[in-house]
Structures are given as C-alpha cells and as structure tokens.
Amino acid sequence: MKPAPFEYLAPTTIGEAITALQEFDGEAKLLAGGQSLMPMLNMRLARPGLVVDLGRVQDLDYIRESDGHLAIGAMTTKRTLERSPLVQNRQPLLHAATVSIGHPQIRNRGTIGGSMAQADPAAEYPATAVALEATLRVIGPTGDRIVPAEDFFVTYLTTALEPGEVLTEVTVPMFEAKTGWGFSEISRRHGDFAMAGAAVTLSLDAAGCCAEPRIALFGVGPTPVRPRGAEDAVRGEQPSDLLCQNAGRQVSEEIDEPLSDVHASADYRRNLAGVMARQALSDAMARATAGRGGRA
Amino acid sequence: MTQMRPIRLTVNGVAYEAPVEPRTTLADFLRADLELTGTHLGCEHGVCGICTVLVDGQAVRSCLMLAVQADGANLMTVEGLAGPDGKLHPIQQAFVEEHGLQCGFCTPGFLIAIYELLENNPSPSEAEILDVLGGQICRCTGYQSILRAVHSAAAKLGAVRSGTAQESA
Hints:
A: 296 residues, Uridine Diphospho-n-acetylenolpyruvylglucosamine Reductase, domain 2, Uridine Diphospho-n-acetylenolpyruvylglucosamine Reductase, domain 3, Enolase-like, domain 1, 3 domains, 3-stranded parallel sheet, B: Ubiquitin-like (UB roll), DNA polymerase, domain 1, 2 domains, 5 strands, 15% strand
C-alpha cells in the first residue's frame, strides 16, 4: 500500500504544468485534491512517471460571478463550494450535489476540477455538470478551449482532455427563483458513491407547463446519461405526480444496460434510476411551482 | 529512487525540516520520519479516516496527501491535543467519560475530525455531527457512545469558552 516511485513537480503556473505534461508525454498525472488519485497511487493502480501537483498553481481557487454564471476555478475545494453563500443561494443544485460527496474530511481536499477530470460515472459532479449544461475550460499547449459538459465525459474515467491539457475552470449558470431543480441519489451509506442518482433542472412556461427539462443520471452507465425520451415526456406537460411516475418509468426503460456489481445488479440499478429521476423531477416541479408564486 | 526533497512544516507547534521522497505519504512521514505514531493507519486509501490529521486547520486523510504537499503547512496530530502537563483535552476527556473508545485504534482520527468540527461549529446539530462521524470508521463502539462524547465535548468546550469550566473529576 505504498506508491511506486515517481518524479514530483509543483508548478506555480499553468504554463509550467503544461510543459511538464508534454515532456512526460502521457506518463504524467495531474494531482488536484488527491482524493481519487492518491488511493490509486497507494494501491499502485496508477504508476505515473511524474506527478504534477496543481496545489501551488496561482489563481485556480475562486468562485466568480459574471453574466448570470458562476465561474469556478478547478482547484476550488468542495468545502469552499459547500460554504459559499453564492453557491448556496444561486446554484443550489451544485450545493446539494456537493454536500452529497463523501464527508467533510474528504471535501476539505477534494476539488471540483479533480472530480470532473476523474470522470467517475457514479460521482455526483459530472452528472450535475451535464444537468446544468456546464462548460469546462481547458488549457493546452496551443491555447484554451471550452468544452460542453456532455462532450467532456467520454467514457468510464475518460474525458476529452488531451494528454497535454489542464482543466482550469467550470462555468455553471446561476439559477433564478423560478428555476426548479432536484437531486436524488441512493447509496448503501451516506457519502459513498451512489448506486444510482439523478440531477434535474426545469422551469415552467407561462401556461405552467414544464419547459427545458434536463435529467442527468449517474451510476447507470460509463458516463452521465441524459434520458432524452423521459425529458420529451415531461416537456410541455403540467406538473403532476403521475407525470413524474411516467417519466421515471420511461427512464428505467430507455437507459442502456447499467453496470452490475457487488453493490447492485443491473436490474436493480435500472429500477433505482427511475425512482431517483421520479423523485428529483418531483422536487424540481415543486420548486419551480413555488418559485413562480404558486403552491409547491 | 527519486530525488529526496527537503520540506519544512510545523507539527503541534514544533518546527521540523526533513528530506522526503515524493512518494512518501504524509501519514508515513509523520509516523516513520517524525516518529509521531499517535496517527494510526487503517485502510491507506481514504475510506476509514483513522489517519485523519489537521492541516492548516482542516481535518484531512494523511494517507491521501503526500508529505511534500505539506511543505510550509501547520499541522496538528493527536499528540497535540493534551496539554503540556498531560491534562486531557476536553474532547479526550469526553471520550473517556462516555466510553467513546474500546480498542482505541480509530480514536486518533475521530478526535481530530471532532476537533475540527467543534472549532468551526461549537454547537453542531445532530446531522452535522453525523456527517463528520460518517467519515470515520469504528468497529468496536457502535458509534452511539462516540456520538454522546461529541455532545459532551461540545458542552465542555462551551463551558471553557464562557469561563464556567469546572475541573473534571
């Protein structure tokens, strides 16, 4: 349970980090909060030639408000996000996802950028980013690019990041009072990775019908999954318990074969995904209704 | 063998300077290099919480941090809790009184995690306490006695703050 030897670099600028990544040509790993990489190093599941510690890079730890969005530096810890009034008030879905991750002792070190780059399909942040249609800013040797969350997560533990690139910022929309949201997950113990979960956002149009419903599931596929059929079933409909039930059933039917493991069989996960989506949709509709002055 | 790197850090008020190999975890550095063996190691992959120490005021898993990352940091381990005269910290005293430990192996991590909780939040709710205790594994007590110890410790520290503390029996 000791890491294999590696070279270590703690750059103070992104440029130095990118140069080091290029020099080691695929043999380097970026270290953010270490709550996923360190276990992999300890168990020698990862044996990089070089560890590039982003902990001393200037200006990657911030939450900035701009133009209706929150721009969040990749090295911002979950504890900082959890305690931020801006996140609590204006991006409550991200807040709900944050406090569902691990425990305070983990959130003290774990970062938003680290979770996104790790891309564990059972993790809360990637699905939340997909539900929020977040964008991720990536800097590489030839400059920077903006990647939509849905394109960022490629497959299990694999992102659109090229070997020489660094994720530097996650941008999410700020909610208005009328935005409805829901977050549901189920795990054997609080703080564990979810067996299945759902993050939902929607709003209500002038007629009180569901508009722009977005459902992102986690724990049921190699990446966060958007069940478009269930979204279609909700769009344009009046909020109701029956609608949520039907949409949940649609989720269970339309997702591909989920993972089967010691925690849950594929059939059980399929069922859970529908239940989690139903609950999150119900919460989102209640919040959207309350937000436009109606009865929740 | 990768190159040794010198690091400087403060642990329990004592300044240390030592060379470390980059792959050395903070937990191993504390135990093997500084011989501060009060910090215990359980799972070594961040699940059990037994190796929890305070780094710049935050409770973290010392098995999930490299010693080189602690360069310049201010740490507290379980050895830093009791007074110089050996008088137990109120959290330790509460553990004794409420039987918050049995074999004691996990206790250093619990004490530090609870220390951080009560430093930031002197009167935590039950849910807030459980959120922290959920990150620490104990296989003896069943947790209820630890939960009682946290409530008792919060009351003791509150009394210390308000100047009404009494010598514990």
